[in-house]
Amino acid sequence: MSSAGPHSNEHAGSYREDFAIDADHPSLPGHFPDRPVVPGVVLLERAAAALQRWRGLRIAALPVVKFAAPILPRQAATLILHDAASASWQVGQSEVAAAETARRGRYRFEILSAGQLAASGTIETVPAA
User: Fold this and answer.
1) Which residues contact 59 (CB under 8 A, 6 or more apart)?
2) Are the CB atoms for 107 and 50 separated by under 8 Å?
């Protein structure tokens, strides 16, 4: 796996990381032969590793995950994590609801590639062991 490195913006409650999955990643030959596509689980693994680096947390649950567009090997992608205090993804949420979301350790992730949303979802966390 290659990566251009992380970019944390603590003030805004977000974390950004540019990456690409190498063509020799072991998951690619079976997903799919002759036309490899990066499996969703590899993208979720990338989000989990970034969350641990950024906040020292691990994923407890993924209540919402959507895969909207494929990512190909060596295709540039950007992972963005938002914490619950970052209201940019919670427009219209009350302060009480935002506090409850923060208490439960919720984060939102987005993976962008080729100018479009490739994957997104909600992560519930627990402290890393």
Assistant:
1) 44, 47, 48, 51, 123, 124, 125
2) no
Sign of CA dihedral 11, 92, 82, 106: positive
Smallest CA-to-CA distance from 83 within 5, 12, 23 is with 12
2-127, what's its fold? Thiol Ester Dehydrase; Chain A (3.10.129)
pTM for the whole structure? 0.81
Q: What is the pLDDT of residue 13?
A: 86
Q: Given the structure tokens 């490739």, which residue do they identify?
A: 118
Rg (CA), the chain: 15
